[in-house]
Design brief:
The complex is a heterodimer of chains A (358) and B (960).
Chain A (H helix, E strand, L loop, with lengths): L9 E8 L3 E7 L5 E7 L5 E9 L2 E10 L3 E5 L10 E5 L3 E5 L9 E4 L5 E7 L10 E6 L4 E4 L9 E3 L10 E7 L8 E6 L3 E6 L4 E7 L4 E6 L8 E6 L3 E11 L3 E8 L5 E7 L2 E9 L3 E8 L5 E3 L5 E3 L3 E9 L5 E6 L6 E6 L3 E7 L6
Antiparallel strand pairs in A: 1-30, 2-3, 3-4, 4-5, 6-7, 7-8, 8-9, 10-11, 11-12, 12-13, 14-15, 15-16, 16-17, 18-19, 19-20, 20-21, 22-23, 23-24, 24-27, 25-26, 28-29, 29-30
Chain B lengths: L1 H8 L1 H31 L8 H6 L3 H13 L6 H14 L20 H31 L15 E3 L5 H6 L3 H4 L2 H17 L31 H20 L3 H14 L3 H13 L3 H14 L4 H14 L2 H14 L4 H16 L9 H10 L5 H9 L8 H8 L26 H4 L7 H7 L7 H22 L21 H15 L3 H18 L4 H18 L2 H14 L4 H13 L3 H14 L4 H18 L26 H38 L2 H14 L4 H13 L3 H14 L4 H13 L3 H14 L4 H23 L19 H4 L17 H13 L3 H9 L6 H5 L5 H18 L1 H11 L5 H6 L3 H16 L7 H11 L1
Helix pairs in contact in B: 1-2, 2-4, 4-5, 10-11, 10-12, 11-12, 12-13, 12-14, 13-14, 14-15, 14-16, 15-16, 16-30, 17-29, 19-21, 19-22, 23-24, 24-25, 25-26, 25-27, 26-27, 27-28, 28-29, 30-31, 31-32, 32-33, 32-34, 33-34, 34-35, 35-36, 38-39, 39-41, 41-42, 41-44, 44-45
The chains are: A mainly beta (358), B mainly alpha (960).
Chain lengths: 358, 960
């Protein structure tokens, strides 16, 4: 094995204890600031902005909202505006201007129940085309929103009448490499993963990984679908090579069990799509690297193309806490910088070194 | 899954559950696993043993053993666990059983330096980001956030039933087929547009018909016009990252697409470089080349780009050019493994082809031009050798012009080649063959248009015989002698006496006697016009050669004139164009120079010097004219196809031949180079040790290898100085200055030599020269002060004492400086050496100054007598001042007028055309003016066939 210092190291740079439960933390693009979203013990929501300064996270702004805020994204906002879109426990979708947090820029009652997950695309220069926000909720629906259109989603993926509604735990955008093509991937509590093609408004692919899907993410939102990582409740994660879709077999995948508990989050390094970090229920982080196979596709007996999965190798792991790490976000601007928050009511700024050599 | 749901609502209770779970998870999970493991495979207790574990090769079983050991079921044996782990690691370093939970790293896990670096890095980043953010905010204030560019809202409220999968399943398809046809058409349009943008010269990649590759639809251009600068940078960088990722995944097409996007947003060197690399992987050599050139335009010495260009050259079969690029890289970074590897590969390739064809000078031309200093014999050889109009059958010309002396083709292989960086080298025995050889190589050297290829092939066999026949006729007995030069070798269609003149010119040029060469060429041209022949090629060559002399002499004006004449005779010949371009450039007429360089590149894209100059001038013009500099350019003439020479159009056989020949020459050259460097190094070492005598020997050997290496001359001069052999030191400095007219060291050392020779005047003028070149040389300043004092003393002495006392013979019995004997003039007498045979403006200026400073009008008269009146304005260049005029007038009046009134008249006739004459004239003082009047009075009194009184009167009007 290589010497320990040549490997990437995960450093806990800043730890900040909070007086509320934090559900999500996100870097504000083009800044050294991050946003923490959560709820106070009294049942109200909170949004805080911190700035990294002199090795400390300094609170810049804090606002209390009526409902606990579950998730947020900057993905559909322009670099200049940098508005955050959030989903709360009541099923509301809000877009906030961080400079003026009193009144949301956009608000809609998106779901009947809690918004579990949110993702955005078309902003920040990531992905061509219209800015869109996708939300997944316990009410079983996945809805796509355009901030320019109020109250009505531009796309709504919901089970047909009579089908049992599954709790949608996670959503992610991908395949947004031109104005028209765009896909949404959703993971459900029963282990279903569904890939919706927004261009054709059709279900493109689905699979079941047998355990609740806690998090899905494409390695890049704004390229022709390349890889999709899905993490599951029992500590496994699957990497799908989404370049080659076989008519019956779908995408090739490789899976790895690393954590002894749920993998709550997976986040790809913005500067290198083949490196990603998983955050686990036992308070640990694992840094992985995906290695492509020599040939990414081959012909099967019928002459159809079938994908070949690569392999994943563990670059580094670290235990931060005894509580789950529920959210993780890489800084889009500084390679190796990330913020994570867990149920120990702490937000941490981490530095991962030597990601280039990995 | 239940857990999570619960958590979302009742997080507090969840925390407790989770806490207890994870607290016990370690043991609990393990005990369960190990017990089941023990159950199914039954690891016996005796297997938990050092010997057994050591012998066990079954990774799975070892993992099981490890699990049991760790569980502590059978007792805890820390050493055995460690042993088992290390053994397992040997067998399978990636085994999951070896994964351990690491604590998160903290400051303590790093050395102080590492930690500081990490923290500093973060701090600088935060500071930078703050600035960027402020910028971004400021920009957003001014920008109105219109959503014009954003696509419309998706047709709303579409309904997709995720559970009803049967229907969509049928329509499921690979990503490729989702794309409707008109979309591809749109894409195609975009590609064409981009092609047009890159001035149509490079072909764009055709999207491959590869299934499952979605990047056909990736737009290669991004409309970033509405973005602020900050955003552009960010986006360009992100697109580049995407390209990098695609590249790493071996998806080069996609990588190219993303790099193109990045470049369309904001062009950067890195993106160009990376795209070049991706294109190389795709084997799109021309695209890769374009990108490399782009980088080199932005950053002329970018190693990566050079390396990549070398790779491209290598694959295009241009080994010579490839190895040059590699050498440049290795010069900057001597241990670059990639460069070394490729170089050895190229060398192998080149040595695989045994040299049998005559070497070509082509590449050498390029390097020479690059270096811009050292023309060597190949220069002239080439000039003569090159078929001026490639479209005409070469065979015929060849035979008529075939050199007499060249009996064997092999001769050429021994010919050492000059490399730009190494400077030329000649080995004396061979050097004289230069100008008469090389014909045989021409047909390969220059790309002959396809249609004439056959003729060339036919001609080549004929050539040998005709050549030898001619040779027998034309040569004299001395030709075999080592040092003899056959000056009667026929040249083209020139009659013997003109050939002789031309050959003499070539020889003189080669020896660096440019002024003499110039005279020969002028005579040849004169003779040519007198004879009324009709052979434009030869005349063109003569003009072109004379232009080279002018260029060397720094007389850009005449150089341009000659080049223009040559070009009138033979449009689109490379050499005159190149020379004219250089002349224009030195006159700072950049636009014209640019046009000429561009024309050169149209004729032959591989002339590196032209590329470099174009880049340089482009920068200059942009500075001068701003963004619209192109609009101010004169039209660049379109070179007819017949005159263009693209190396890549050569058929492979040509390339092989070329490679062989190049290899041969390169070998010889490399040997010379290696030896040269070694000798130089030894010499330098001796100098450091103070063993100057030994160093002298080494340097002398160096100079035998490369007589035009300026540094060696200056070094040797230093040795001579140290050995107090001032005369020789001065000689070396002179030689160095001839090679590099603004070499500070040479000036300084000559100053010291002059001081040693007690020639304080020359010394001070040299020192002033040094200070003019670089005002910061303190040694020079000090010396200058010292010398000024000495100069005064010596002047005082000459007035007091009889001049005889000061002799030149102080130079320890060694021969005096070559120029010195002439200057011992009897009339005024002094110890100053005046070069009465100036060959350049500089030397003339030196001599004139020397004479003027000591008021030696006789010396000045001699100087003028030995100078062609026509050259006077040019020698004076812009140095003319009132004192000089009055001094020249004085010299003419007192000495020249009586002896050679014609010459005096001609001088006066030329003098007033010199630069600054009018200004200088106004500076004349009263009695100086009187002198002028006096001179003209006396001149008009002289009866002469050369001029009439009226003419004198006219001339006088210009002076008075």
């Amino acid at each position: 094995m290589s010497s320990p210092l040549s490997k990437p190291q995960i450093i806990a740079h800043i730890q900040k204890s909070l007086n509320y439960t934090v559900f999500d933390s996100k870097w504000i693009p083009c800044s050294a600031k991050f946003v923490c979203l959560g709820n106070f013990a009294r049942g109200t929501g909170v949004l805080q902005i911190y700035e990294v300064q002199h090795g400390e996270a300094q609170l810049i702004k804090e606002v209390e909202k009526a409902k606990p805020i579950k998730c947020g994204t900057f993905g559909a906002s322009s670099l200049q505006q940098r508005h955050i879109a959030t989903g709360d426990f009541d099923g509301n979708l809000h877009i906030w201007n961080l400079e003026a947090l009193d009144v949301p820029v956009y608000t809609t009652k998106a779901h009947k129940e809690i918004v579990n997950s949110i993702d955005g695309v078309g902003g920040l220069g990531i992905g061509d085309g219209a800015p869109e926000i996708v939300t997944g909720s316990r009410d079983g629906t996945v809805k796509v929103w355009d901030p320019r259109q109020k109250d009505l989603p531009v796309a709504n993926m919901e089970p047909v009448e009579g089908e049992t509604k599954r709790d949608c735990w996670t959503v992610a955008f991908g395949h947004a490499f031109n104005d028209q093509d765009r896909c949404v991937c959703a993971g459900y509590d029963n282990g279903d993963i569904k890939l919706f093609d927004l261009r054709n408004m059709s279900l493109r692919w689905e699979t079941n990984i047998k355990n609740g899907v806690c998090c899905v993410e494409f390695d890049r939102k704004d390229i022709n679908m390349n890889k999709l990582v899905a993490t599951s409740l029992e500590g496994k994660f699957h990497v799908f090579d989404t370049r080659t879709q076989h008519p019956t077999k779908g995408f090739a995948s490789v899976s790895e069990k690393a954590h002894k508990a749920t993998i709550w989050q997976v986040r790809h390094l913005p500067q290198n799509r083949d490196i990603f970090m998983t955050a686990g229920g036992a308070g640990n982080l694992h840094l992985w690297k995906y290695e492509y196979p020599a040939q990414r596709s081959k012909k099967d007996s019928d002459g159809a193309d079938v994908g070949v999965a690569g392999s994943v190798s563990l670059l580094q792991n670290a235990t931060l806490s005894t509580q789950p790490i529920a959210s993780l976000d890489w800084s889009p601007d500084k390679q190796g910088l990330c913020v994570c928050s867990g149920f120990d009511q702490t937000v941490r700024v981490l530095i991962v070194t030597k990601l280039n050599v990995a | 899954m239940l857990l999570k749901v619960v958590l979302l609502l009742f997080y507090s209770s969840y925390i407790i559950t989770e806490f207890s779970l994870s607290a016990m998870s370690g043991e609990a999970v393990f005990s369960r696993q190990s017990s089941t493991a023990g159950f199914s495979t039954k690891v016996p207790v005796e297997h938990l043993d050092y010997d057994y574990i050591e012998k066990c090769k079954d990774v799975k079983y070892l993992e099981k053993i490890l699990r049991i050991l760790r569980s502590g079921e059978e007792g805890i044996y820390p050493h055995l666990i460690k042993f088992c782990e290390s053994h397992l690691e040997k067998l399978n370093p990636n085994s999951r059983a070896l994964r351990k939970e690491n604590p998160v790293a903290t400051e303590a896990s790093f050395s102080k330096d590492e930690w500081n670096q990490i923290v500093d890095d973060l701090r600088t980043w935060t500071e930078e980001t703050k600035k960027t953010e402020t910028l971004l905010k400021e920009e957003s204030v001014f920008e109105d956030l219109s959503d014009v560019k954003i696509p419309p809202i998706r047709s709303s409220n579409c309904f997709v039933p995720p559970n009803k999968t049967s229907l969509p399943k049928q329509t499921r398809n690979s990503s490729k087929r989702v794309v409707p046809r008109d979309y591809q058409e749109w894409d195609k349009f975009n590609v064409e547009e981009e092609c047009g943008k890159i001035d149509g010269s490079m072909q764009k990649i055709d999207p491959p018909a590869q299934l499952n590759s979605g990047h056909l639809n990736i737009r290669r251009e991004v409309d970033a016009s509405s973005l602020s600068h900050q955003e552009k940078l960010l986006l360009a960088n992100r697109e580049k990252d995407k390209g990098n990722e695609a590249f790493r995944a071996n998806d080069y097409e996609e990588a190219v697409a993303y790099y193109s996007r990045s470049l369309s947003i904001f062009p950067t060197v890195n993106a160009y470089n990376n795209r070049a690399q991706a294109e190389i992987r795709l084997e799109h050599w021309h695209n890769a080349m374009t990108d490399c050139l782009q980088v080199l335009e932005l950053e002329p010495r970018n190693k990566k780009a050079l390396l990549r260009r070398a790779t491209v050259y290598y694959h295009m079969g241009k080994f010579q050019m490839a190895s040059e690029d590699l050498r440049t890289v290795l010069q900057e970074e001597p241990n670059n493994p990639a460069a070394m590897q490729l170089l050895s590969k190229i060398e192998k390739k080149m040595s695989d082809c045994p040299p049998e064809q005559q070497s070509r000078g082509k590449k050498i031309l390029i390097e020479e031009v690059e270096e811009d200093l050292c023309y060597s014999k190949e220069e002239q050889e080439e000039q003569r050798a090159r078929p001026v109009q490639p479209s005409q059958p070469v065979g015929g010309e060849e035979s008529s012009a075939a050199p007499a002396e060249r009996g064997d083709m092999g001769n050429a292989q021994k010919k050492p080649h000059s490399r730009g960086d190494g400077g030329p080298h000649t080995d004396t025995s061979n050097s004289h063959h230069g100008p008469w050889r090389g014909k045989g190589g021409t047909s390969d050297k220059y790309k002959v248009p396809e249609e004439s290829k056959e003729k060339v092939a036919n001609g080549s066999s004929k050539r040998g015989s005709t050549a030898s026949a001619q040779g027998n006729k034309g040569t004299t007995g001395g030709e075999k002698a080592k040092e003899t030069v056959n000056l009667d070798a026929p040249c083209g269609a020139l009659p013997p006496h003109l050939s002789r003149l031309k050959n003499e010119g070539n020889l003189l040029f080669k020896n660096g006697q440019f002024a003499d060469a110039l005279e020969k060429y002028s005579q040849a041209i004169q003779g040519y016009t007198d004879s009324g022949m009709d052979s434009p090629e030869d005349l063109c060559l003569l003009y072109s050669n004379r232009a080279a002399c002018y260029l060397k002499d720094g007389n850009s004006q005449d150089c341009i004139q000659d080049c223009t004449r040559a070009l009138e005779l033979q449009p689109f010949s490379l050499k005159p164009l190149l020379r004219r371009a250089m002349a224009y450039e030195s006159l700072e007429r950049y636009r014209k120079a640019y046009v000429d360089y561009k024309t050169v590149l149209q004729i032959d894209t591989s002339v590196q010097a032209a590329h470099d100059s174009v880049n340089r001038i482009t920068r200059m013009l942009i500075e001068e004219d701003g963004a619209e500099w192109r609009e101010k350019l004169p039209d660049i003439p379109l070179v007819p196809l017949s005159a263009q020479q693209h190396r890549r159009e050569e058929p492979p056989s040509q390339q092989v031949l070329q490679a062989r020949a190049e290899k041969a020459s390169r070998d010889a050259e490399r040997r010379a180079e290696v030896r040269f460097t070694a000798l130089k190094q030894e010499g330098n070492d001796f100098v450091k040790k103070g063993q100057y005598q030994e160093a002298l020997g080494k340097y002398a050997e160096c100079l035998k290898l490369k007589p035009k290496e300026c540094a060696i001359y200056t070094n040797r001069a230093l040795c001579y100085l140290k050995l107090q052999r001032f005369g020789e030191a001065k000689q070396d400095c002179d030689a160095a200055l001839e090679l590099e007219p603004d070499n500070k060291k040479a000036f300084f050392r000559r100053a010291l030599a002059n001081k040693g020779l007690q020639d304080y005047l020359a010394c001070s003028s040299d020192l002033q020269e040094v200070l003019q070149l670089d005002p910061n040389v303190q040694e020079a300043e000090k010396e200058l002060e010292e010398v000024t004092v000495l100069l005064r003393q010596s002047l005082a002495r000459t007035q007091d004492k009889p001049r005889k006392t000061v002799a030149i013979t102080e130079v320890d019995g060694e021969e005096a400086v070559t120029e010195a004997p002439n200057c011992v003039s009897s009339c005024t007498g002094d110890n100053i050496s005046i070069n009465l045979k100036p060959s350049s403006a500089y030397e003339f200026g030196q001599s004139l100054n020397a004479a003027r400073c000591c008021g030696n009008a006789a010396a000045c008269a001699k100087l003028l007598a030995s100078t062609e009146p026509e050259l006077l304005p040019q020698y004076l260049s812009n140095q003319l001042d009132g004192h000089t005029i009055s001094f020249i007038v004085k010299a003419l009046d007192s000495h020249l007028l009586e002896e050679k009134p014609d010459l005096a008249y001609r001088h006066l006739d030329q003098l007033h055309t010199a630069d600054r004459f009018r200004v200088a004239l106004t500076m004349l003082e009263k009695d100086e003016r009187r002198h002028v009047t006096q001179l003209f009075e006396r001149l008009s009194a002289v009866e002469s066939a050369e001029f009439t009184k009226d003419e004198v009167q006219n001339l006088a009007n210009k002076y008075i």
